[in-house]
Amino acid sequence: MRLDQITLENFRNYAAQQVTFHPTCNVICGENAQGKTNLLEAMVCLSTGKSHRTRADRELIRFDQEGLRLEAAIHSRNRDFVSHIDIGFGKKKKITVNQVPVKAASGLSSVLNTVFFCPEDLQLIKEGAAARRRFIDSSLCQLRPRYAAALSEYQRLHEHKTRILRDCADRPDLIATLPDFNLRMAETGAVLIHYRARFVKMLSIFAAAAHSECSGGREQLAIQYKTVKTVIDPFGDQKLLVIQLLEHQREHHYAEVSSRQCLSGPHKDDIEVLLDGLSARSYASQGQTRTAALALKLAAREIHREITGEYPILLLDDVLSELDTRRQEYVLNRIGSGQVFITCCEEDRLHSLLKGNVYRVKNGIVTQQ
Ligand code: ATP
Ligand code: MG
Description:
The chain is α/β, with parallel strands linked by helices. The chain folds into two domains: 1-113 and 312-369, 3-Layer(aba) Sandwich (Rossmann fold); 121-309, Glutathione S-transferase Yfyf (Class Pi), Chain A, domain 2. The protein has helices at residues 36-48, 104-109, 123-126, 129-143, 145-167, 178-214, 238-251, 253-259, 280-283, 286-308, 325-333; strands spanning 2-11, 14-20, 25-29, 67-76, 79-88, 94-97, 100-101, 114-117, 221-226, 270-275, 278-279, 313-317, 340-344, 357-362, 365-368.
């Protein structure tokens, strides 16, 4: 899949701008606050219908303007598409693909997918489990509709059970409803574990390859899936998973009632990232952290290609700083197939760029070098 051209009208600090891109590598340079991230944000909008930075669409409209318009010329599934987004104050958002109105997320993502990487993604390595679960959930939801359905059902059950645990001190009769919730959470939980185990296995293989290449073979990355303790084999039969989840719930019944919290289930799952056998969360340097986080994103992109046959476009916001020359050269030249967009502040890093286009952004105006 390829983004051939983008047009921005009154989007963030862009008044009217059209840019044509290279099919492989596109480097976007500029000083701080010139519009580099805004350009990548427009690409995210054109693949999901919304921004990754804000929920408020009106923030995307250029100051003092009435509305914005984005257009993308895309090549995917061996065909050409043109997608449009129109957002105006107080008007309903309009999204079309080849002039046919579509639903935001599903319509746009059927022609353009993005994997976005920015400095905040270092949380994937350094922060608590929630960031890693979000990464796995959002990757899997894009690829597996059955997973997306099970996840939303599980989240609904989890919220409901949490309310029961909170209220049951005042209303002891509610405790009688718990076994029913426990069974349904174990059944949907088993579906989540089934998919996550397989996803993490693929992630581990692809991320290890990317990390090893990026670090010049110096470091070995491994990823382990951590789920509910009583689950002996997450690849096992789903009926067995249900039994093992129920067993864990039974062991934690009193603790759940006394703490009024839902303590048992795959909503606490995590992945452990290891570098040369050591926990990356505790021991990785800044450069290693960045490389490992990037390796996870590159692996998600490979898995997407394995399953759908096409690479999503890769958006790398500000990743070159903190990487040494060898790792920068890898990012610029050896990410391999698929289309890549890289923003950076310093042009002197680009002497090693072999193939692709370089653009300069200044105050919302893009020029090709
Ligand atoms: P950095 O190198 O610091 O990350 P950047 O080039 O990525 O900089 P952007 O995040 O793209 O910078 O933002 C560029 C400018 O866009 C900011 O100065 C911001 O004030 C401006 N901006 C954001 N939203 C709007 C808007 N709705 N209308 C006009 N300008 C906006
Ligand atoms: Mg930026």
